[in-house]
Automatic annotation (TrEMBL):
One Gene Ontology MF term: ADP binding
Residues in NB-ARC domain copies: 421-588
The protein's name in its UniProt record: NB-ARC domain-containing protein
Organism the protein comes from: Eragrostis curvula (weeping love grass)
Domain Disease resistance N-terminal: 250-336
Family: Belongs to the disease resistance NB-LRR family.
Keyword Manganese in record: no
Residues in Disease resistance protein winged helix domain copies: 677-748
Keywords recorded for this protein, A-Z: Coiled coil, Leucine-rich repeat, Nucleotide-binding, Plant defense, Repeat, Transit peptide
NCBIfam families cross-referenced by the UniProt entry: PPR
GO BP annotation list: defense response to bacterium; innate immune response-activating signaling pathway; plant-type hypersensitive response
SUPFAM superfamilies attached to this UniProt entry: L domain-like, P-loop containing nucleoside triphosphate hydrolases
Length: 1229
């Protein structure tokens, strides 16, 4: 019956929208009463009906029902139906999991499934390497229908993927039709981010399409072409305006909300809508004026005053609109449904009408305020005074060209390094070589380039030195180069009528056959370089060009991506800074009076090794009548603060720093000003910064792009432009944290004060008299100010509040009505004092970001489900109780808890989570671990387990089994970190591999062997793990990982065979950290690890004099720059210690590159090896440790150690490693 009627069943289901429930009833009735089972076609039809209705979860359950029936076979059509719907409802992370499930059931996926997965990687994840991996998998599985040039469309999400081939060159047949990169580089300005496909010549671009959705294209492209592509300016990115910015205030956010209020969702009266439209029109005109004026370099005081008034107005109205929208939403959500709801709605009708009339009245008042501001604009004729005249100032960078060599300090080493780079004798020495110098403004790039120019100019036929600047005149630059190299125009030739092409051709022809040396100073964009560089022929005469810039991508573009020719300027060291400072002040570097030492040290610290700052301040002091007057020095120190722009002596330095800021697009200016929320010398986390930018609305919107991904691009661009200094960079060259130079921070704070963007202080009472509302407030104080009043300051308009320092004083949180960001970072000095009460945040409905770092206990509100805007919740405290309703935070993206005692049930409902870190999970947390498997959007998972006294091995095994089951569902993971003091072999056999994993770290726990699935992680760049045993096959698994740049591996057992590192593996590894009891088993063949720069070795010295030997072949590591050796001396004889150090030193000395070496012998144990043999018994405590006699040992610790670090390096009890009694007690009670 089912076979005969399935077609009619399908047609009826498609024809009638309400037949779906009846269809399910028929299916169940026929099966139960007549024992007639539906076939796969019927199930597919039912599933399609569920998908069309939007009930994807029910469709997934139906698929599982099919899988449970022995007489039915799941096919690709069932999965294709599910894939299309998951793609439509943006649950794309689950699509990848379906592909792995199909493989497990030996079902060959069709084109629709594969295309959907490729679109997920290309559109949402911007991960072309994963997309190409899927494409390769598609070919291997024999899926038909996708060739080299294949376009497809899924639910209005169009993508075109052109796979890599030799013939697939960048030409007229593709999307980039007519693009000639050599002659028209400006046409590339519309391109989006390029990506390199690993181990290929393929670059991937996202390109805005004029006729449809954005498309992707990959193509083979020569490196010199790509150098022009990757130098695309940041301003070329097509984006909407940011919601909130320093120049436009909250205008973008406000106009969007006004438009939303006009929709039917809020059911406003006609009169209210008319007032809103009128207000909207007025504000749009103001916004247009702000946009025009924000690009003006020097607006008049009148214009600046009016712009400030408009910004303040936008913030105030935005706050009011937030209150309206919250009031209306609460009113809507509080109404019950059904008959009772009808009665209550009738009773509240009069009240509702009155409230909505009140809203109309309030909007009328807001419109009146806007009109008053507009009237002042007309009254004072602001348009007629948009700019003010400034006296001409001397560019301080020009002074660097005329500095005498004898007065320079700290320049010898970089000068000699660059000269060596220019003159190195290799195959390419006769070709044109371009060397780029980049770094922060004021580091001395121009001075360095000029010094090299002076030293080498006599070795070249033609020489030239030109300065470019931010807004270059290419014609004048080329004319100047022609003049300097000695070009003479033909007689009766008027060069004034030449265009740029004529100048380029003339210069190129003149330099052909000559050996030339030209310096192009201060380049701000790659387009400028592209044009100028066309005039430099490669005539194989050993010509050289030096380019200086503040922007790293411009530097790499100048060198055609030959990174070995990019030279990064560094700040002066402490000694060179002192020499330069005192030499300028006193004429000698050793004549500073002792009573000026302290203040001079503080001045030098603020200068931060910046030569320009040191020269400016020291020159000022040198010109004072009494330069030995301490008060004069202290006044100078005070002027280096936020009064930077008020001191005429520091004008030159201000100009140089200001150039970096003024060159930024508006969205980046806003993000840079937000750095003023952090105190001096603070290390700023990239993730924290990015999440706060998003929470504040600073990030522009772009179709198909995630706001956090855009914000990451902002951060990288700020680093690229040398606005901030990288503090920590991982092996993948990703900057994870940064610092702001003190001088730049001073400039930022001044700009913030000028635009009332942010207020920073160490005493809240100092700002209580401010005339303007405080929009963002940062308190950083180490003084005791607890209990102080915040005076007359209005906290209700504060949108971001940060607190740093030792004092735990917090203004009343209930007053921060419109707070978006709350960041409290207290130092460790208050450990164990009164708990920090955060219950006052319960009324902060706009809160999007909450981070608290403290040693104290934290008290949160008992209920936090009302924070429906919250995106980040990060708590790092000694103790915190997580509210039971946390699972209702459906928009939460990042949940990071350190100090929580337990997690409530329901974590699996938080489908939006991307980051989940929890630091105190006990062996009884199996239910929570199972729920983690439902968080399919997770990208970052970090868990830390503790073994309780009553927990046995079986509980640990069950926990790891649950974790394995969850990991098999998390296909979007990028970062996985597990800390567990036991065996991790349950994780060694994942049925589904998290293919997108980039970092995998295990701590304390160990694997018996390296898990096989690690060999499939083509995106993995950082790996840290403990293993019991490593064989040759395991080494080969790791060696073939194409992206691995950092490997940290500890081998517990003595290797049974040699660990040979061949020349064919570890092609990009930069950092190797290895611990092993027999280092003699480690062998590096010639050509092995060609990119390795850092080698760390850990071993114990016990028995070294009998069977120890250094690793073989370290001299073959051609790129090695640094070696660090740590030798555990606990239980070893002195002869073993000496033998270990001597052999390692001799092996290192064989390296031809003379890498920096550090060999250190410690009293404890480096690693707890399974076969450790103690040569000398040094204490009864060690005897107890070796015998694993825990009870007497802990008694001994309690008597002698208490809270101090133990004398032993590690304590072992069933694999547990601890280092302090505090940790021991937290585990065992």
């Amino acid at each position: 019956m089912w076979m005969n009627s399935s077609e009619h069943f399908t047609n009826s289901l498609q024809a009638r929208g309400n037949i779906l429930e009846e269809a399910f009833e028929v299916k169940d009735t026929m099966a139960q009463r007549f024992n007639l089972m539906p076939n796969a076609h019927v199930y597919t039809s039912l599933m399609k009906g569920l998908c069309e209705r939007g009930d994807v979860d029910a469709a997934v359950r139906l698929k599982e029902e099919i899988a449970g029936k022995a007489d039915l076979v799941l096919d690709s059509a069932v999965y294709a139906t599910l894939v299309c719907e998951l793609f439509r409802v943006r649950r794309k992370s689950e699509v990848v999991g379906l592909l792995e499930e199909m493989k497990g059931r030996e079902i060959v996926a069709d084109t629709v499934v594969y295309n959907a997965i490729i679109a997920v990687f290309c559109e949402d994840d911007k991960d072309p390497s994963a997309a190409f991996a899927v494409l390769e998998d598609m070919k291997k599985c024999g899926c038909k229908g996708v060739g080299v040039n294949t376009g497809f469309r899924l639910k209005n999400q169009g993508w075109k993927h052109l796979t890599h081939s030799k013939e697939n060159k960048l030409g007229t047949q593709h999307v980039l039709q007519g693009l000639d990169l050599k002659s028209t580089p400006m046409k590339t300005a519309r391109l989006f981010h390029p990506y390199l496909i690993p181990d290929t010549d393929t670059w991937y671009f996202l390109i805005p399409s004029s006729t449809g959705p954005r498309q992707g294209i990959s193509c083979s492209i020569e490196s010199n072409h790509f150098s022009r592509l990757r130098a695309i300016t940041f301003q070329g990115m097509v984006m909407e305006e940011a919601m909130v910015s320093a120049s436009h205030g909250a205008m973008g956010s406000l106009l969007g909300k006004l438009g939303e209020l006009l929709t039917d969702k809020y059911k406003l009266f006609k009169e209210a809508k008319m007032e809103i439209r009128s207000l909207q029109s007025e504000l749009q005109n103001m916004q247009a004026f702000l946009k025009d004026m924000s690009g003006t370099q020097n607006p008049s005081e009148q214009t600046k005053c009016w712009m400030s008034e408009v910004r303040e107005l936008s913030y105030d109205i935005d706050d009011s609109v937030d209150e309206f929208m919250l009031r209306l939403e609460q009113e809507s959500s509080s109404k019950p449904q059904g008959f009772r709801g009808f009665i209550e709605r009738c009773l509240s009708l009069l009240t509702t009408v009155k409230a909505r009339h009140q809203i109309t009245k309030e909007f009328r008042g807001l419109k009146r305020l806007a009109e008053e501001v507009s009237e002042r604009h007309k009254r004072y004729k602001v348009d007629d005074a948009t700019s003010k005249q400034h006296d001409e100032t001397i560019d301080p960078r020009m002074l660097a060209l005329y500095t005498e060599t004898a007065r320079l300090v700290g320049i010898d080493r970089p000068r000699d390094e660059l000269i060596q780079l220019m003159n190195e004798d290799d195959v390419s020495s006769q070709y044109l070589k371009v060397i780029a110098i980049f770094g922060f403004g004021g580091l001395g790039k121009t001075t360095l380039a000029n010094e090299i120019f002076r030293k080498l100019e006599g070795e070249y036929h033609c020489r030239g030195f030109v300065v470019v600047s931010q807004k270059p005149n290419i014609w004048k630059i080329l004319r100047k180069i022609l003049s300097q190299v000695g070009y003479a125009a033909p007689e009766n030739t008027d060069m004034e009528i030449w265009d740029v092409d004529d100048l380029v051709n003339a210069l190129r022809n003149f330099l052909t056959g000559k050996r030339y040396f030209i310096v192009i100073d201060d380049i701000w964009n790659a387009t400028t370089w592209t044009v100028i560089s066309c005039a430099f022929p490669d005539n194989k005469n050993g010509s050289r060009v030096i380019a200086t810039t503040r922007i790293e991508t411009v530097a790499t573009a100048c060198c055609s991506n030959q990174y070995q020719y990019v030279y990064k300027m560094k700040a002066l060291g402490t000694e060179d800074s002192r020499r330069l400072f005192f030499k300028r002040v006193f004429g000698s570097d050793d004549t500073c009076p002792s009573y000026l030492e302290e203040v001079s040290n503080i001045i030098l610290k603020r200068c931060g090794g910046l030569p320009l700052a040191i020269i400016t301040v020291s020159s000022h002091l040198a010109t004072q009548g009494n330069k030995l007057n301490k008060e004069q020095w202290e006044e100078t120190l005070d002027s280096l603060g936020s009064n930077l722009e008020l001191n005429p002596t520091l004008e030159g330095m201000r100009q140089v720093l200001n150039l970096s800021y003024t060159s930024l697009p508006h969205c980046l200016k806003t993000c840079v000003l937000y750095l003023g929320m952090y105190p001096e010398d603070h290390t700023i986390s990239k993730n924290d910064l990015v999440r706060q930018w998003v929470a504040q609305g600073f990030v522009s919107k772009a179709i198909g792009r995630d706001p956090e991904d855009i914000a990451l691009g902002y951060f990288n661009e700020i680093v690229n432009r040398s606005i901030v200094q990288p503090a920590y960079t991982d092996s993948n060259d990703d900057v994870l944290s940064c610092r702001v130079h003190d001088m730049m921070l001073d400039l930022i704070i001044h700009k913030c004060r000028e635009e009332n963007f942010m207020t920073a202080t160490d005493d809240i009472e100092e700002i209580s008299g401010m005339l303007k509302n405080v929009r963002r407030l940062s308190l950083y104080s180490n003084g005791v100010i607890d209990g102080k009043s915040h005076g007359s300051i209005q906290l209700s308009h504060v949108r971001a509040f940060t607190r740093f320092g030792t004092s735990t004083y917090i203004p009343p949180l209930v007053e921060f009505k419109h707070l978006r960001v709350l960041n409290l970072e207290f130092s460790a000095r208050n450990r164990g004092q009164i708990p920090i009460d955060l219950t006052g945040i319960s009324c902060l409905f706009q809160l999007r970001y909450l981070k608290v770092v403290t040693w104290n206990q934290i008290e949160l509100p008992s209920k936090i489900s009302r924070f429906q805007q919250l995106e980040t919740l990060e708590i790092d405290a000694s103790k915190v109780e997580i509210p039971s309703d946390i699972a209702h935070l459906r928009r939460l993206l990042h949940l990071i808890i350190d100090g929580g005692l337990s997690l409530p049930k329901g974590i699996g409902n938080m489908k939006s989570l991307r980051t989940f870190r929890f630091s105190l999970l006990f062996m009884s947390s199996t239910d929570t671990i199972i729920e983690i498997g439902d968080l399919t959007n997770l990208r970052d998972l970090q868990l830390r387990f503790y073994r309780q006294r009553q927990s046995g091995d079986e509980a640990a095994r069950q926990l790891m089994h649950a974790l394995r089951s969850s990991l098999e569902k998390l296909c979007n993971l990028r970062y996985l970190r597990i800390r567990h003091d036991g065996c991790l072999d349950e994780l060694s056999s994942l049925s589904t591999t998290p293919l997108l994993l980039r970092k995998f770290v295990t701590q304390s726990g160990w694997h018996s062997r390296i898990p096989m699935w690690i060999g499939k992680l083509y995106n993995l760049y950082h790996l840290q793990l403990f293993v019991k045993e490593v064989l040759g096959h395991d080494i080969r698994i790791l060696a073939q990982l194409p992206s691995l740049t950092s490997l940290h591996m500890t081998i517990r057992a003595t290797p049974k065979e040699n660990m040979v590192i061949c020349r064919t593996g570890f092609s990009v590894l930069k950092h190797l950290d290895i611990g092993c009891s027999r280092m003699s088993r480690l062998i590096f063949e010639s050509g092995a690890m060609p990119k390795l720069q850092m080698l760390e070795i850990h071993f114990n010295a016990s028995g070294w004099d009998r069977h120890g030997a250094a690793p073989t072949g370290m001299e073959h590591l051609s790129s090695l720059k640094e070696i660090s050796v740590q030798i555990g001396g606990r239980g070893a004889k002195e002869s073993s210690r000496e033998a270990a150090q001597s052999m390692l030193r001799k092996a290192i000395d064989l390296h031809p590159g003379r890498p920096m070496a550090k060999i250190r012998c410690i009293d404890g144990l480096c690693i707890e090896f399974d076969d450790f043999v103690m040569e000398e018994v040094q204490s009864p405590l060690m005897l107890l440790w070796k015998c694993n006699h825990v009870v007497p040992l802990t008694h001994h610790i309690n008597q002698e150690s208490r809270d101090a670090p133990l004398n032993v390096a590690d304590i072992r009890n069933q694999g547990l490693i601890v280092s302090t009694l505090w940790t021991w007690k937290s585990i065992y009670g």
